[in-house]
Design a protein that fits this description.
Chain lengths: 311, 209
């Protein structure tokens, strides 16, 4: 382990994330972890890490970081126009930072969350089996909080080798973040929706409201009528579309409550979570009903794209 | 029993739709049996359902569905004897007078009934360490507040429907707050971080200030 990067400016909300802590749900602890797991995994593979190593999840704006030693890094997900010593550098590509190099971001061009992986994997507080930051409980990652100026990112010391350089994930293998159609599988309470609501769910456009964070997004659009007998709380999963009494759906994300009693009318495909993770308030989305088989084919395609980075 | 997908990597098994100790015990038995299955990452029992998280690369929805159906046939050993926790409560909650009035009984009776029953922990959820307890005696059954409170302090002991709970985090909430406890139910630096576990039993003990 050695000091790899110093945080000069933290960005709006930069947290340490990995693939989360699924097995703490029985204690009411959300699974957490990177919102866009494709970008997170790809960043790690490009930096020569295991897919589950911790990365930095940078929300809306990127940090300013200075390299304290040579490191191989990769930046994926949202495009915040990264620069090294002022020069534009490519995303979805492995890069070398030399001691003293400054990585910063000129500004958001698209997407909501960029991921920075460092060869060796970013070290952080491990809580309940994961390094992911869980802000509510102030645990995991960088002492349970977002990065602040002066923090030092520590990673296992892996000297960059020529073989690790300039590897990239081609455009056609990256998620199409511009396509905001989210494939979704019918949920356990879809049959509650009258025909009109059902065609609204799978036909109309919803807008991400200002109430959107790592827990979930409240959506605004055509009201859905999922009324019926009050449900008893049951275990939830990231990606479910809940309908509270207001009729305005809620899409649950990584830090979602572990259980709830609102009707669940759909669950977006796992392969659609990266696109959902890149949405910001004011952006529009649609749900398109798919079968589990279709969802799994999309998952397999993403798996193959990631596997192409293993060599 | 109803089995339905919750996306492409989870499913939910619905065993019924009641707050019932036997159903809850059956759900817990099923969850325990499923947890050791190939491809199952976790299984979370709730009142009368089990949510199963699985890896679709290791097991298919159809295979897991058949496994659930088979396991459900096997008789469940219903245990009613989880660990008993006594939680001291100061009954001075903001909703106590209104709840008593709505129920048509005295405040003393509300306290007496709420603290006489032994509750089952049906689920830890919503927030870290927060228990859902019940069944609440029918004499205390009230619908949720029509306007939820925007802030319910941690430690609040509240009721709604046939349920009672202890808020472990300050959150908005629509339940009727009868009192408060200073007993810690969340220990973030232990694993598991929740004092209570599904299947445990809870008794509230009235305490003066």
């Amino acid at each position: 382990m050695s000091e790899a990067l110093r945080v000069v400016k933290p960005g709006l909300l930069t947290t340490v994330q990995d693939l989360g802590r699924l097995n703490a749900m029985s204690a009411g602890v959300p699974p957490g972890g990177a919102m866009d797991r494709f970008a997170h995994r790809a960043a790690n593979l490009l930096a020569g890490n295991d897919e589950g190593a911790a990365t930095l999840e940078c929300t809306v704006s990127g940090p300013v970081l200075v390299a304290l030693r040579p490191s191989l890094v990769a930046i994926t997900g949202a495009d915040f126009d990264p620069r090294v010593n002022g020069q534009p550098v490519p995303v979805w590509t492995s890069l070398v930072l030399n001691e003293g190099d400054e990585l910063k971001f000129a500004g958001r061009r698209s997407g909501a969350r960029a991921y920075i992986a460092v060869a060796g994997g970013i070290a952080g507080d491990r809580w309940l089996g994961s390094v992911s930051t869980y802000l509510l409980a102030e645990r995991g990652g960088m002492h349970g909080r977002p990065l602040i100026a002066g923090d030092v990112i520590v990673a296992t010391d892996v000297p960059p080798t020529p073989a690790g350089l300039d590897r990239r994930l081609p455009h056609e293998l990256r998620p199409d973040y511009a396509d905001h159609t989210l494939p979704a599988i019918a949920g356990p309470h879809l049959e509650r929706l009258p025909a009109e609501s059902r065609s609204a769910l799978f036909g109309s456009t919803y807008t991400v409201s200002r109430d959107a964070d790592r827990m979930g997004y409240r959506l605004e659009g055509q009201s859905l009528d999922a009324s019926g007998e009050e449900l008893l709380s049951f275990g939830l999963v990231a990606g479910v579309v809940q309908v509270p009494r207001s009729g305005q759906p809620i899409l649950l994300m990584s830090d979602h409550q572990t259980a709830g009693g609102y009707p669940v009318v759909a669950t977006i495909a796992g392969a659609a979570m990266p696109v959902a993770a890149q949405l910001l308030p004011g952006e529009e989305l649609r749900f398109a009903e798919v079968s589990i088989e279709t969802a799994l084919r999309m998952r397999a395609a993403q798996r193959a794209a990631l596997d192409s980075l293993k060599s | 029993m109803k089995i339905q997908p919750l996306g492409d990597a989870a499913l939910v098994v619905q065993l019924g739709s009641r707050i019932d100790t036997d159903l809850s015990a059956k759900a817990q038995t099923l969850a325990n049996r499923l947890r050791s299955r190939q491809g199952v990452q976790d299984a979370l029992a709730s009142y009368c359902s089990v949510t199963v998280h699985y890896n679709p690369d290791s097991v298919s929805y159809q295979t897991l569905r058949s496994a659930v159906e088979r396991l459900h046939q096997k008789p469940a050993k219903v245990t009613r004897s989880g660990r008993l926790h006594r939680i001291p409560v100061i009954y001075d909650g903001p909703d106590l007078p209104d709840a008593a009035e709505a129920l048509g009984i005295s405040i003393a009776e509300v306290i007496q009934i709420h603290s006489s029953a032994t509750y089952r922990v049906f689920l830890i959820g919503f927030a870290p360490g927060q228990p859902y307890l019940g069944p609440l005696p029918a004499k205390l059954q009230l619908p949720r507040r029509s306007t939820p409170r925007t802030y319910v302090p941690a430690g609040s002991v509240a009721i709604a429907g046939r349920q009672t709970n202890v808020y472990t985090w300050p959150t908005p909430g629509g339940w009727h707050v009868l009192g408060r406890t200073d007993m810690r139910l969340v220990f973030l630096d232990r694993d598991p971080p929740a004092l209570l576990r599904a299947g445990d039993r809870v008794k509230f003990v009235p305490r003066a200030e």
